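Our preliminary data section would be incomplete without showing what the modeling component actually yields. Below, a chain of 66 amino acids is followed by its predicted structure, encoded as C-alpha cells that our downstream tools consume directly.
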Amino acid sequence: MPSHKFRIGQVVTYRPAVRGPDPPPGAHMIIARLPPSEETGELEYRIRNLTADHECVARESELRGR
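Predicted structure:
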C-alpha cells in the first residue's frame, strides 16, 4: 500500500486540477489523510484553506510542500 507524502498539520500549496467551487489555489493545511481514491487509486487528503473557512478533498498530485 502506498504511503502518504504529507503529514497532518503540514501547510501545503493547493493547485486544483480543475477549477470549480473548491477553495482557491494557495496555502492550505492538511487536516486528514484519506485512503486512495476508488476512481484513480491516488492518495487523497482533507485540506482547509488558511484564509477562508473552507475545506475540500484534494489528490496528492494537486499538493506541493512549502
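The longest strand covers residues 26-34. The chain has a mean pLDDT of 89. Preliminary results of this kind motivate Aim 1 of the renewal.
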